[in-house]
Amino acid sequence: MNAGATGFGVGAALRRKEDARFLIGKGRYVGDITRPGMLEVAFLRSPVAHARLKRLTKPAGHEQQVFTIDDLPEIKTIRANSALPGFRVSEQPVLARGKIRHVGEAIAACIAGSRAEAEDLAGACELDYEMLPAVSDMTRAHLPGTPLLHEDWSMNAFLETHRNDDVSGLDAIAAAKVTRTLRTSRQCMAPLEGRGVLAEWDPRLEQIIVTTSTQMPHVTKSGLADCLGLDEGQVRIISPDVGGGFGYKGILLPEELVLAQLAIRLGRPVRWLEDRFEQLTAGANCREHHYVITAWADEAGRLLGVECDAIVDAGAYSSYPFGACLEAAQVGSILPGPYALPLLRCHTMSACTNKPPILPYRGVARTGVCYAMETTLDALARQLGISAEAIRLANLVRPEAMPYRNLVGKVFDSGDYPEALRRAVAAIDVPSIRARQAKGEAVGFGLATFCEQGAHGTSVYHAWGIPFVPGFEQAFVRLSPDGILEVRVGVHSHGQGMETSLAQVAHTILGVHPDKVRIVLGDTALTPYSTGTWGSRAAVMAGGAVAEACRQLGDRIASIGAGLLQVTRPDVVVADGFVRRIEGEGSVSIADVARTWYRAPQNLPKGVDKGGLEVTAGYRPDPDTGTHSYAAHAVVARVDLETGAVVLEDFVVVEDGGKLINPMIVDGQVLGGLAQGIGTALYEEMPYDGAGQPLAATLADYLLPGSADVPDVRLEHMETPSPWTTFGQKGIGESGAIGPPAAIVNAINDALASIGAEVTDLPATPERVLAAIAAARAGKA
Amino acid sequence: MSRIDITLTVNGEPRELKVEPRDQLADVLRGPLMLTGTHVGCEHGVCGACTIEIDGAPARSCIAHAGSCDGATIRTIEGFGDDEIMRALREAFTREHALQCGYCTPGMLVVGRDVVRRLPDADEARVREEMSGNLCRCTGYRGIVRAIVSVIVARRHARREGACR
Amino acid sequence: MKPSRFSYKRPASWDDAVKLVLAGARPGAGTQSLGPMLNLRLARPDTIADLRHLPDYAGVSVRGDTVRIGAGTTHAALEDGVVPGRLGQIMASVARRIAYRPVRTRGTIGGSLAHADPAADWVAVLPALGGVAVAFGAAGERRLPLANFVTGIFETALAPGEVLRAVEVPMLRDAARWGHWKFCRKIGEFSKATACLLDVPGARPRAVLAALDGPPMVIDDAAALLADPTGEARRIVAGCPGLSPWRQAIAEAALRHAVQGARA
């Protein structure tokens, strides 16, 4: 292995191979693809949140162009079960059947030659329904007397979980105790490209080909086959360039099933492209949490215990494959964060409401949990009169304790958590902030520390019992006759630069120049089975699989090369694209080895591996409980007391993602996540009224951070290898999105500490900040 | 509600088209003209992914009806050939890792080029202000801002050197 | 979403435009506000009369002490200084902060004013600058004071069949003092409260408070505001019904900052 030695391998900040096509407008997304005879689909979606659907009248003369669930009885309902005890399973019809459970739920597919005409049809349908009271407040959804979304359930909750450590004695011994009620808002992940599906039937292969903007082509394939009653060989999923995922495209879509069945029925290609209005009104589906959290500490700030009652608004259905409980059920296991917490009492509920079904968004539950824990820690520190740094240092798991198993059984692989925090604090001139505060300026300093479990595998997901438990990740590699190395993996890339990072991995093992490595992704017909790209797993899992496949291929190349050099296998190594004798002169290029196998097999040595120059190899870290990257965020924020507006003056991130395969790409992941975290902290909110109506229908109402809203973040890396992965790399794709709400609100609360005001709800809009100030002043008056 | 005949000059080529009055320019470019580098992101003028040049100025093609553009000169991401500023921007974008999924990139480049041309003395804060009408969900903007600033600075140096000679 | 069907007309003369509008056509200019509403099917006109090709629709001319700005003049042109002198300076500073440059290159001052979104910039600023809107109808041109041109949410003083042809604004001496402040959470976002104040030596200072979900409030004599910005801002805002405490706070802040700006 010659990691990074040539400047192209693991560790090199190599420029991205995929940039060339994007920079000239030649990226190819679903919406760029057309087929002869293709029809466009627009969905008639529910205008109301909760209703009994009585009748749909199709536009006269166009009855054959409008399809309801009664017209598509072949499609089974979507069921995403969970093995967690007490889970209530929802049946999600792909088009509303009998009942409407959220605004934007698809009711009918309307087909025409153009999208505009399809929308005309949707607009001309007449809908007759009987309104039911909407369940839009997650904190009251479970109460008796609330109308039930799923009428065979006993209450509007998918699941409750309990952890019952005894915290009753802590009041007596604690030096400080704080309780906070906190909430985060529902968000829309809002990748810049919406979802899109193009389905066509291939009569020759008797195969439905679905081109869809997805993060998980193989899971979609299996789900589609299940729900349409096809065998998996009859389904091919192609995911071309994907314009951002973030979890929004980690789902089996009702729309994918409808489009596939329509293409089979009509024998013509059909396409649906989600527009932004649909995305905002039917696809705001993450991050809505409510916490009542109590924490106890001794006088040094050491945590004695935490008690938490958490509710997550899971929406109306359990989405496939991750289900409705991934967020809430994880709250209890994530709450200890990077800290050595002795006691935890935690109750969680996945509330079922008349809103779009929840999906795991970058960071999943961590962003909310980190917000709850970190703001509570700061409140404790204020009560104890110690610094935010001190209370964290008193509780962070220490490097000498690694690997560390915490009280909920999570195993942290490696790292120096306190050092990350110290570096982040050192990067900020805290005394100058204190001096400005002393002069009455509303400026504050905020911290957040957290760790991110990534690439967690079989042992973790098996326990949750979701429909898809990730196992071994596979990669296929082939040395072509011309010496080009083809690498096929079942994960996908939606901005993560896998075409570059995986080429670097291959280069590190085989020495083939990255320009001569072709990474093939996003097509179930071409790639090995994979559960896809999510959960910060691709760099660890696919990176490991590609390395393993290249190693095995390298061994075969070496054997042939040794034969050509008339020495034995132990006498040679593969390096820099050559098979070289270890001692003495003599080498043969990998390309010559390839030519020999394919075009001059008469020259092959005896006893050569008959598998030739193609290898499929599998990989899973051992243990597979996941890598833990971690970070400390430090923020300086200024509050305008007049308007409540918050300005981020400085933002420092110290991050440890283990060995970085491509530091430039990792920076990009962290910075991109940060912008999303800043959105969660300050801007993004999908408000719902009491009738379950989403109130932000355009990007003028649902505010995404722009270039002027994100500071020039200062980013510093530590590189503590994970002992469990191929190169020591850790999953780090979500990290940036986890810390900002906690760090920013802590900075705001520090700025407002002299007033005694605290922000509790996200996003910290000017209105909420000003309300917190007014409440504090009213309380003092 | 008949279709209307329009003439556009698109990336230097005269094009005669029949369009529906309700067709937005973005859909005409992407559909009949097959110029799919212009991306549709929001269809209400906020995200900037569809930004192209109409008569030399950056504009949103999702809220400009093709009919009202009759006679206009259009340039899309596919039409910059070896334009010197665009070439410098592309090089800077890849160097500064200013793109990830690539969806916002064509709009970013078109607006970035306008900023470089129109505001030769812009600093980072001004670039951030000027680029605020183009949303990126992947990069956190640092690479985009750095790339554009670097092109502005390089041109400023070249100008000074030219003046000294 | 795609717009509903409509037919497209391109009047060659102002008389033709008026005929079309009288027959129910919706006038269209840069369509930077109308375009999104069409795409969302919030507006479903049968016909759009595209004013962009009318003679003298865009452009600026100075006659005596007044500058006539064609309704079709883009925000970008104003940003780039198409209006001369102190007035042009003020208008450029306002224009630069309307939406984003690629919107400003097509959006027009007349289109924005006639659309009469309460949060729009020219709706707030033009009443402070004084002058008149030039309406064109079947009976020819009619001049309407800009101070009460916008009468409600998406409502103007234009009579049925009239289209907005230009605005005529008095030129300003260099000594004119100007303050303008708006609150947007993000650049380019619609304002949540806007105030501006024009103080020309020898004339009564004039202020406008706008973007509060109704027509702009014109304060014809802002002397009291200049004298006691905090107290007077509170009094003025207390007179605006239905505002949340936060909206009241930023409205007061807007007035105070407008005064500060004019004093600077």
What does the model show?
The complex is a heterotrimer of chains A (781), B (165) and C (264). With 781 residues, chain A is of the alpha+beta class. Chain A is 27% helix and 22% strand. A seven-stranded mixed beta sheet of chain A has the order 3-5-1-12-9-10-11. In chain A, strands 7-15-14-13-8 form a five-stranded mixed beta sheet, covered by helices on one side. In chain A, strand 10 (207-212), helix 4 and strand 11 form a beta-alpha-beta unit. In chain A, helix 8 runs parallel beside helix 17 (740-751) and helix 13 packs parallel to helix 14. Residues 1-5 of chain A have low confidence and may be disordered. Chain B has two domains: 4-79, Ubiquitin-like (UB roll); 84-164, [2Fe-2S]-binding domain (DNA polymerase, domain 1, Orthogonal Bundle), CATH 1.10.150. Chain B contains five helices and five strands. Chain B has helices at 25-30, 84-95, 105-118, 124-130, 142-164; strands spanning 4-10, 13-19, 51-54, 57-60, 73-75. In chain B, a hairpin with a 2-residue loop joins strand 3 and strand 4 (57-60). By secondary structure, chain C is an alpha+beta fold. Chain C folds into three domains: 7-53, Uridine Diphospho-n-acetylenolpyruvylglucosamine Reductase, domain 2 (2-Layer Sandwich), CATH 3.30.43; 60-170, 2-Layer Sandwich (Uridine Diphospho-n-acetylenolpyruvylglucosamine Reductase, domain 3); 177-263, 2-Layer Sandwich (Enolase-like, domain 1), CATH 3.30.390. Chain C is built from ten helices and 14 strands. The termini of chain C are far apart. The chains are: A alpha+beta (781), B alpha+beta (165), C alpha+beta (264). Chains in contact: A-B, A-C, B-C. At the A-B interface, helix 1 and helix 16 of A face helix 2, helix 3, helix 4 and helix 5 of B.
CATH class of the largest domain in chain C: Alpha Beta
Largest sheet of chain C: 5 strands, antiparallel
List the domain count of chain C as a whole number: 3
**C-alpha end-to-end distance of chain C:** 46 Å
The most extensive interface between chains reads: A-B, 55 and 53 residues
Helix content of chain A: 25-40%
State the end-to-end CA separation of chain A. Answer: 69 Å
Low-confidence parts of chain A: 1-5
CATH class of the largest domain in chain A: Alpha Beta
Tell me the strand percentage band of chain C: 25-35%
Shape of chain C: globular
Pfam families (chain C): FAD_binding_5
GO molecular function (chain C): FAD binding; oxidoreductase activity
Protein name (chain C): Carbon monoxide dehydrogenase
Keywords (chain C): FAD, Flavoprotein, Oxidoreductase
